Each structure stands twice: as C-alpha cells, then as structure tokens.
Amino acid sequence: MTLQDELTIDMTMMGLSHGHMQPSLMPRAHRHAEVELNFTEQGTITYLFGGDRITVGTGQLAFFWATLPHQVIQVEENTIFHWLTIPFSAFLRWRLSPTFVQQVIRGTCILGELDFTLMQAQFRQWRNDLQARTEEQNQIVLLEAEACVRRLATGSSTTNTKNATAPPMEPHLLSKVDQMASFIAEHYTELLHTKDVAEAAHLHPNYAMNLFHKHIGMSIMEYITQYRLAHAQRLLITTDINISEIALAAGFGSVSRFYSVFKASCGLLPGAYRSGLRLKPS
C-alpha cells in the first residue's frame, strides 16, 4: 500500500444494497455515501471509526453514516453478519428524532438490540427482496428498514426522551441538505469555504449556512472540521505517517491550526493521542 493510499480514501456509492458474509479484516478504511445498518448474527466484529473502536456482538445492531471512514480491525472466528446500506436522502425523509439524526450525522455509531429471531429473518428477507430488483420490493425494504431504525432510535440513549419528530422538510430542501453534506464528505480534505459548499447546492452562502445549521445541527465549517479530525485520528492510530503530513492530508490548512483544533477537540496533542491509542500490530 502506498503513502497516497494511506492518506486518501475514495468515496463510493452503494445505493440500497444488502450483504451477508463471514467478515474479514480490512487492509484499509473505506467509506461510502449511505447510512448503514449492521446485524451480527454470530460472533463479534470490531470497527475503527475515526479514532473510536466499536465492537458489535452477537444479536447487536449498529447504525451509522458510512461517509465516516471505517475499518474492520478485529473479527471473532466464525462471525456471521449482515449489512444494509440505505441512501442518505431516504434516511432524511424518515423524519426521525432530531437528536437521533444529529447523533448519526455527527458520526456516532448507534448500537442496540431488537428481537434476535425477527432481525435474523428480516435481514434474510431483505436480501431476497433486493435480489428481485423491482421498485416495489425496494420500497418494501425501505419501509421495513425505517421501522427497524425507529425501534433502534426509541431504545437509544442518544434520543430525546420526548421522542420528538423532526419538522417536515420540503423535498427540494432535503435535496439541498443532502447535496451539501455529500459534497463535504467527498471534498473535506481539500481547501473548502462555505461558498464552495453553497455553490454545490446552487444556493446563496447565507441561505446555505442557515439551512445546513437548521437541519444538521452545526455550522458548515464545524461539520468540515469534524470530518478532518476523524480522518486525522484514523491516520494517527493506524500509521507511522508524520504528523505534519497527516494535518495537511486531512485538509487542515496549516500544522499549527491542526494542533490547536485537535487539542481543543480531543484534549490531547496529536503525538500524545497517537501514543495512547496506537493500534498494536496483530
């Protein structure tokens, strides 16, 4: 693997899709534009999300927005798991609790459990439905996936106790938010300004800032910084790449800016963070 491979992670598009497998270790992180729902039918699987290790055990569900680089770093022998990817725009249309949506968008991997037998049958049914490749079957999968995620959100400690529902978002506004978030996920390692993100959605910068903050829960620049930090955390933990190179590869304009933002967010300087959390070779 080249240095450039380590520093960059291409975005892929998977759409509405399903997989069922015995997972293996991933040589590098990957990311894609959809939200993802995982179910571990047997065994355990451990992911690295940015700088966080997340273990999904037997019978557990994991739900996350897969634009954040993630990598399988540990798998118990004979593990079997399922995944379902769901277009981000479909997730926004579900109008889930604003607190839950913002947790997902901010990069939290939501863990929970529902009835094991039901989930085992449900994921297998989704595989059969999607193999049919019809719009009607796709809609059935989306409706059932929405119900599943709603149950997961209801039982999640990240949700509002009042189970508030997000206000309706007009389809054209939903599309604009989706376009801006997707543009950031694709280009966060580049030099970006608010006007660049606004232009991607054909909006005035001031209107774009207000719309983004209203529905995402943070400013455009805060959101970009979150992606850059997660990218840098992953490289600090998994590589020996020089910290200055990591800062620039993650999209920070200067090394001093990177140190300042990293310390404010993580409570440690990058070198100390690397020393404390570095993955040991297997």
TrEMBL record:
It holds the Pfam family HTH_18. Keywords: DNA-binding, Transcription, Transcription regulation. Signal peptide: none annotated. GO terms for molecular function: DNA-binding transcription factor activity; sequence-specific DNA binding. InterPro entries: Cupin_2 (IPR013096), Homeodomain-like_sf (IPR009057), HTH_AraC (IPR018060), HTH_AraC-typ_CS (IPR018062), RmlC-like_jellyroll (IPR014710), RmlC_Cupin_sf (IPR011051). SUPFAM superfamilies: Homeodomain-like, RmlC-like cupins. PANTHER family: ARAC-FAMILY TRANSCRIPTIONAL REGULATOR, TRANSCRIPTIONAL REGULATOR MTLR. This is AraC family transcriptional regulator. It comes from Dictyobacter alpinus. The gene is melR.
